[in-house]
Each structure stands twice: as C-alpha cells, then as structure tokens.
Specification:
The chain is an alpha/beta fold. The protein has 2 domains: 81 residues, no CATH class; 135 residues, Rossmann fold. It contains 11 helices and 11 strands. The protein has a 5-stranded parallel beta sheet. Helix 1 packs antiparallel against helix 2 and helix 6 runs parallel beside helix 11. It is globular and about 65 Å long. The two termini are 15 Å apart.
C-alpha cells in the first residue's frame, strides 16, 4: 500500500465508484497482515517511502513463497535479499514475468509501476570480490527509485584507476564505497569528494581481516569527514541510506 494506491481508494469512495465496504476490505490489512510466522507490513511504503523487504536467509522456501505471494497480492513492489539460486529456482514459476533475479547479488526485485530514476548514486568497489555486495546495494537503490552508476575494481592497490573516475564520483549526490581487506578505499574517496560517502566493509580478505572486522574498524576510524559506515556486507542498508540521501535533493512530488 503506497501513497498513490491509498489516494485512489479514497478518491473512488468520494466519487461513489467504490463502496465504503469494499474500500474497507482493501484497507483491512493495514497496518500489517499476520501470517503466523511473519507479520507483513503493507503500510511501510506509505509510512517510510519504501516497501517491506524480505531477508531470505534462514527462512524456508515455503515461508519465502508465502510472503512473496501476499506482498504481490497487496500490490507491493518486491525486493528480496540473500535469496539463493536454489530458492529462486523453486519459486520462479509463481513470480511475475518481469521479476528480476540477480544471481551475483542474490536479490529478487519486481516493480509494479515503473518509476523515473532520480539523482545519481555512485556505487564503487575496491575489488571484483566486493561486487556481490555492490549488486545488492544497486538493486536496493534502483528499486526505491535512484539512478545508479557502478564503478568496480578501483581499490588502493591501483589508485590510478580511481582517479580516472573521479569527475563522475563528484557528480553523484552520494557515493557508496564497498571494500574488504584493509577497507582503505572509503577514506580515500571521502577525502576526494564533497558529497556524502556511505562506507560498506565486506568480509573479503585473508585471516587477519577477521571476516570484515578489520575493514569495519578502518572505516569507523576514518579521518575523512562526511563518511558513514554500515554493517559488514550490508549492501541493502547502504543502498537504502544512499537512496534516502539522494532523494533529499528531489521535489516532494517525486518522492
């Protein structure tokens, strides 16, 4: 349930083309629908501007399938993260034809109505191994309505690769920097651009990277101003935050 859908119901009732009883039937799942194992927040898009997102890891195929079907029936846009290829294959036949599965980022997305993509979010990775997290961030920001440009494999081991793209980074409203190992790229970018930087540590690296903790601590201790850090491998959180920052530069009617 988003702003447009709710406005249409209210308009139809006021015009007499929809009875109050039928309008009530459509609204009965607000603010949530209880499935027993999950309470689906159909009201979230209306309240926060973004629909409820399904985190698939540790959910059963049956649970994921049921949640998807109920969200689709309610007319919600769909974003599912951490969806394995095996789960996708098992539920694929019941999905809308235009649903998009990104195997690299393990995301499933479906947009009921095409949105005009606004602003610019630049999503940057230090290495190729960081791309899965970048793809999750990309799917998130794009579904919510941001225009995204991806710049991959420009880490500090070959810093000249980053300098070739610096003008484009400075044009973005917000830059998402995704890096594992030492996590140094976020501070470098933060020192080169005036726009906000969202830093994402990844679990990429050898033993002393401690599954991303080393990169996380580097980013949290960055001396570059205007840099915010999300959790390890949290492409979704980064994409969501970047979209909200990006949207702040848009008129209310486009949000």
């Amino acid at each position: 349930m988003n702003r447009e859908a709710l406005k249409k119901i209210l308009t139809d009732i006021s015009k007499g083309t929809l009875s109050p009883e039928k309008g009530l039937e459509r609204l009965k799942t607000l603010p949530y629908e209880d499935l027993g194992f999950a309470r689906l927040d159909h009201h979230r898009a209306l309240r926060s501007g973004a629909p409820e997102v399904i985190y698939c890891e540790d959910k059963t195929k049956k649970q994921i399938d049921q949640i998807l079907k109920r969200l689709l029936k309610a007319g919600n846009d769909i974003l599912a993260t951490r969806m394995s290829p095996e789960v996708y294959k098992s539920i694929k036949s019941g999905l809308p034809a235009k649903a998009v599965y990104n195997e690299e980022g393990k995301t499933l997305s479906f947009q009921k109505r095409k949105k005009k993509k606004v602003g610019l979010v630049a999503i940057v990775t230090a290495g190729t191994s960081d791309i899965p997290v970048a793809e999750e961030a990309t799917a998130t920001a794009e579904l919510f309505g941001s225009r995204v440009e991806k710049i991959f494999d420009v880490g500090v081991a070959g810093i000249h690769r980053l300098f070739d793209k610096i003008d484009r980074l400075r044009e973005a409203r917000v830059v998402v920097v995704i890096a594992g190992m030492d996590g140094a790229l976020a501070s470098v970018v933060g020192g080169l651009v005036k726009n906000p930087v969202v830093a994402v540590p990844t679990s990429v690296g050898y033993g002393a990277s401690f599954g991303g903790v080393a990169a996380l601590l580097t980013m949290l201790n960055s001396c570059a101003p205007g840099l915010a850090t999300v959790n390890i491998d949290n492409g979704f959180g980064a994409g969501c935050l970047a979209h909200k920052i990006n949207l702040a530069g848009e008129p209310e009617e486009t949000q």
